[in-house]
Amino acid sequence: MNATPVPPESGVVYPVGLRLHDRRVVVVGGGQVAHRRVAGLLAARARVTVVSPEVTPAIEALVEPGSLSWVRRRYEPGDLDGAWYAVAATDDPTVNAAVAEEAERARLFCARADDRSASNVWTPAVARHGELVVGVHGGGDPQRAIGVRDAVVAGLTDGSIADRAARTPAVAPTGSVVLVGGGPGDPGLITVRGRQAVAQADVVLADHLAPLSLLETLPTHVEVIDASKLPRGRSMAQEQINALLVEHALAGRRVVRLKGGDPFVFGRGMEELEACVAAGVPVEVVPGVTSAIAVPGLAGIPVTHRGLTHEFVVVSGHLPPGHPQSLVDWPAIARLRGTVVVLMGVETAPAIAAALVAHGRAPDTPVAVVTDGSTPTQRTIRTTLAALPQVIAEEAVRPPAVWVVGAVVGLNGPHDEPTPDDADLD
Questions:
Q1: Which of 189, 224, 323, 400 has the most CB within a 10 Å radius?
Q2: Any bridge partners for residue 342, and if so which?
Q3: Which domain of life is it from (predicted)?
Q4: Catalytic member of 229, 259, 262, 426
């Protein structure tokens, strides 16, 4: 779409937010442009009718559940009757012009996708950031609007643009707690919602495996509490963490519990949630990218692969096989044919490898150990179950490390071809 500068004699664009909840909107056209417009209209909870002989699969998938109505034919005069808003998004300029003319006669605003100069409404570049809606008009230049929009959203996300109103607790004097999964360590792998929560925090309780570089972006008045749990070393007791979350929230602060990976994958997030609920503190969970999948993936190792494995299991290795407090059925794990991902299992790796072999896994089963996943010092060590204990010692492997057992480890090198039956499976 070409840039269309606003002629001075036409006046400037008047920005307005349409509240289209339960109001009829007609979209003429069923291609990719229409699909994008439909997505935004449905988010506004408009009653959308699409008029087009054909539509994209994504639009068609919305018909059966009743999210929108589809009139399966070309546009005809009268299709805009009862509409509050219209979009002309076909690939035929003649049809788009006819839709725009009907809208003009009906004093109805219509966004014409193919010709901005002939449209009586311009759609801004839009993004949503929590409850905020950012809309930018670029003076007729869509790319300019998109660039400014993206810069604003990036600033809101990383906190360089301060959303001061959002930092004020909605209900005084009680604050709130957000349990944020920070992903495997690289700050670029935290979710948008997670980064937003960190940027709006008054207090952050952070683990050592969380993306700590995000803390450097926080204003000086934000209190940062080290809630690390070092393997076999210093750690803050879980009861103390729970108490601090509740204490700061009850004092009216926005509290973020920043954890590595996902809060509910061996992260004790549920204990923290229960403590907040018991104290009457509002709590939100922001899922994170778990290291169990992300770290192998960053090393080029998928936990599943078509025709090779149909399951994977994630196991905590903080207790060795045979430990009275261990809840892992190691014989059952060993009998699985798929992928085994072990977290927190550096010190116990020799015992776990021995148990897997003793209960049925072949000693030459491929193993990959990935250390410092997603960081500049990430490295991958490839070996076998039988040789794992020796490799762990010789390579001086230290936490954090994720190790993966199974045929998927061999995908970057020689490995057995799948059987014909497996290869036929979807």
A1: 400
A2: 315, 403
A3: Bacteria
A4: 229
Tell me: do 41 and 99 sit in the same domain.
yes
The question of whether 207 is a catalytic residue gets the answer yes
Q: Over range 108-121, report the average pLDDT.
A: 90
Tell me the pTM: 0.77
Q: Is residue 139 part of a domain?
A: no
Are the C-beta atoms of 289 and 184 separated by less than 8 Å? Answer: yes
Residue 425: CB atoms within 10 A of its CB come to 9
Is pLDDT above 50 for 1?
A: no
Residues 6+ apart with CB under 8 A from 66: none
Asked whether residue 425 is assigned to any structural domain, the reply reads no
- Report the C-alpha gap between 157 and 195 in whole angstroms: 6
Is 7's pLDDT higher than 70? no
Last residue of a domain, one of 56, 91, 123: 123
How far is it, in rounded angstroms, from Cα 185 to Cα 208?
9
Reduced 3-state DSSP string for 306-369: CCCECCEEEEECCCCCCCCCCCCCHHHHHHCCCEEEEECCCCCHHHHHHHHHHCCCCCCCEEEE
pLDDT digits (tens, 9 = 90+) for 249-301: 999 999 999 999 999 999 999 999 999 999 999 999 999 999 999 999 999 99
Are 185 and 282 contained in the same domain?
yes
Q: Catalytic residue among 207, 329, 364, 424, which? A: 207
pLDDT digits (tens, 9 = 90+) for 168-227: 444 446 799 999 999 999 999 999 889 889 988 999 999 988 888 888 878 888 999 988
Residue after which a domain boundary falls, among 67, 94, 123: 123
- Asked if residue 49 lies in contact with residue 68, where contact means CB atoms within 8 angstroms, the answer is yes
Domain shared by 369 and 271, yes or no: no
